[in-house]
Amino acid sequence: MGADPRRWKALAVCLIAGFVTWLDISIVNVALPSIRVALDAPPSALQWVVSGYAFAFGLLLVPAGRFGDTHGRRNVFLFGAALFALASAAAGAAPESSWLITARVVQGAAAGVIAPQVTGLIQQLFQGAERGRAFGLLGATMSISTAVGPLLGGLLIQFSGQREGWRHVLHVSIPISLIAMVLAYRYVPGRPAGKRQRESMDPVGVLLLAAGVLLLILPLVEGRAWPGQGKWLLILAGAVVLTGFVGWERWYGKRHDPIVDLSLFRRGSYALGTLLALLYFGGFTAIFFIITQYLQEGLHYSALRAGWVSAAFALGSALSAALGGRVVVRFGRPLVVFGLVLVTLGLGATEPATRLVSGQNAAWAIAAPLFVAGVGNGLIVSPNQTLTLSAVPVAEAGVAGGVLQTGQRIGASVGIAAVGSAHGIYAASFQQALLVNIMFVLAALAAGVADVFVERRADRRPG
């Protein structure tokens, strides 16, 4: 059977969908000060506006991916895009913070429905070098959309006004989602004819995973609002629930298809690559949350000016992402390690730069190290995905990709909650939060270095 002649047009649809779902992670950051004033929202509510999206995004990836495998990826894609547009409309119309948080959670869930259809379609439509190129383009799109979000949000607020501009920031996804739906109906292939397989969706596994991650996040997000030290016991409870999740998946996997196939983690490179993704996204996604908050609330930058700072990161990512996709097969995991070193150096220089150049000139000082971090980012996201999934047989690639993305989203959710728990003077809070970011990236670097040694040991093994 030859390659589908519509595959590159279908890829364009996938990139549009990938752009809008990742854009909504970061674009809302510059709107948070306006939301706080307009809706009289407490700090914990603002954190949920960001982390609630990432949390719901992560939980739907694997079950939605399995549902797409059995019911047709195009139909599930269309449903997810429609739900995303409706949730975006509801978020932009929110009269108070609880409404907004709920809409953002639904929006994140819709993104979680769309994302595995995108990766599944790439694996379905492309083979060999073309597949690597397609994943490279997706990785570049993800990196750039996350980085340009604050800039686009700043532009919308600048031209729409501080009071109501945040609503337009949340509505920007609607036309993009509708365009993706129209193009998907025309270019994305439907489910092949044949008998549909019915598979269990493992609802107990989904609930245990959701409860465990929620228990981990709650004390971080609500740390200042909840008095006393008892709240930190929720983290221990979360660890217990996640341990129960692992036990359930082992038992359930002997009889049915579990939500997470634990046998995947017996492959060292896959396990370490997934861990690397989880840790890195814990630091990467939260970078724009803390920088835009510091510039707007601490230095009183406009939303547009704060957004421009992130353009340096976007430019660095754009320059290196395409290159990373092309050379990853030649250099392997050391390329990702090099990228992590660059991100660490860039973030490490960001806070000292604000002390060397203070006040309204701080943006210029921050831009240079963020550019370095952006270059490193482009060598991490897509290359890590390519290398991590290369260790998995094609027959298991769909579930493996879903688990990898779930780790990314959970890491992002925990990371945003962790940096948001730093409070006090804005400069001090920025310093503390940036340190949290760096610790996440350093932990990811340790996982990358470990994988390099594991791979070299395997290469030296006889036979």
Folded structure, characterized:
With 463 residues, the protein is an all-alpha fold. It is 80% helix and 0% strand. It is built from 17 helices and no strands. It has helices spanning 7-26, 32-39, 43-71, 73-92, 97-125, 128-160, 165-171, 173-187, 203-221, 233-253, 268-298, 303-331, 333-356, 362-378, 381-390, 397-420, 426-460. The radius of gyration is 21 Å and the shape is globular. The two termini are 35 Å apart. The model has no long low-confidence stretch (mean pLDDT 83).
Give a short overview.
This protein has 463 residues and is mainly alpha-helical.
Q: Which features would summarize this protein structure in a list?
A:
463 residues, mainly alpha, 80% helix
Write the layout of secondary structure elements.
Elements lengths: L6 H20 L5 H8 L3 H29 L1 H20 L4 H29 L2 H33 L4 H7 L1 H15 L15 H19 L11 H21 L14 H31 L4 H29 L1 H24 L5 H17 L2 H10 L6 H24 L5 H35 L3
Helix pairs in contact: 1-5, 1-6, 1-8, 3-4, 3-5, 3-9, 3-16, 4-5, 4-7, 4-8, 5-16, 6-7, 6-12, 6-15, 9-10, 9-16, 11-12, 11-15, 11-16, 11-17, 12-13, 12-14, 12-15, 13-14, 13-17, 16-17
